[in-house]
Write a structure and sequence with these properties.
With 270 residues, the protein is mostly helical. The chain is built from 15 helices and no strands.
Length: 270
């Protein structure tokens, strides 16, 4: 009995240490946003009184509101478009029977082995000729349909009751009606999980916006943070504040939707 208690205590101590290492970077980031650059370099680990000063400096140095809006607009547009296209594809792969669909799915999964960096040069030339530089369409088109999301929706659709589809067809409901009025509401947790993953990926996307977004007016938050470190000296106070502002939307989204995220990943159906 005593050994069992010692094992439990050791487990909790280990979990506390791991939690401390996980949370400390966020704590240091938030604390750093309230201190001056010189204090951060010295390793100050306590909250300061320079948060408003750092925010004013950041707002006067860069176009913070414009970059935040660009990131939010691009991420939302990417999320909505990707969910629509990939959910339709995943639904079709699972619901409709065809000999070649498994081969096509295999080719889609095989495309995941191609690194995106290898496609950037031809994509840039194509988008440049199509005059899609510095546009939301240029941002979302390369990632509007991904093999991962299609496979995710297909696997989740395996638990979708086929009897419901057949009953809806007997009642005269069309295929799009079945998808929007039956499939989407039932698979809401799956859509929530896919939306969280897609939004966070689009919000934190750096490499493609670095290529496609060439003007200051179309700059996103990751590009803004990179610009703060481009000078001869870096103000770590405003750098930490900008990183904190960039991190907050994804943290809020995940913690408010984590229950649906877990349900969607586990493939639960309500």
């Amino acid at each position: 009995m005593k050994q069992k208690h010692l094992a439990t205590i050791a487990t909790y101590v280990f979990l506390c240490v791991v939690c401390l290492f996980s949370v400390f970077p966020f704590y240091f980031m938030i604390v750093g946003s309230t201190n001056l650059s010189v204090d951060i370099v010295k390793g100050r680990l306590f909250f300061g009184t320079h948060l408003i000063e750092n925010f004013k400096t950041l707002a006067s140095t860069v176009k913070l509101g414009n970059a935040f809006w660009n990131s939010l607009r691009n991420a939302l547009a990417n999320t909505v478009a990707s969910l629509f296209v990939c959910s339709l594809a995943g639904y079709g792969f699972q619901i409709y029977r065809d000999k070649g669909k498994d081969t096509l799915m295999g080719l889609l999964l095989l495309s995941m082995m191609v690194p995106f960096a290898a496609l950037m040069v031809p994509l840039f030339r194509m988008f440049s000729q199509a005059r899609l530089l510095d546009t939301t369409a240029g941002f979302i088109l390369p990632t509007i349909s991904t093999a991962f999301l299609i496979f995710f929706f297909r696997q989740s659709a395996e638990s979708f009751p086929m009897e419901t589809v057949q009953a809806a067809r007997v009642d005269g409901l069309g295929e799009l009606g079945i998808f929007f009025r039956i499939f989407v509401p039932i698979m809401a947790p799956t859509f929530s999980a896919a939306a969280i993953v897609t939004f966070m990926s689009a919000w934190n996307n750096y490499l493609w916006p670095l290529i496609i977004m060439q003007s200051q007016e179309s700059q996103t938050m990751p590009l803004l943070i990179t610009g703060l470190t481009a000078g001869y000296t870096t103000d770590y106070g405003i750098l930490m504040l900008s990183v904190t502002i960039t991190t907050l939307p994804t943290l809020i989204l995940f913690f408010t939707q984590q229950k649906r995220f877990v349900e969607g990943v586990l493939g639960s159906v309500k």
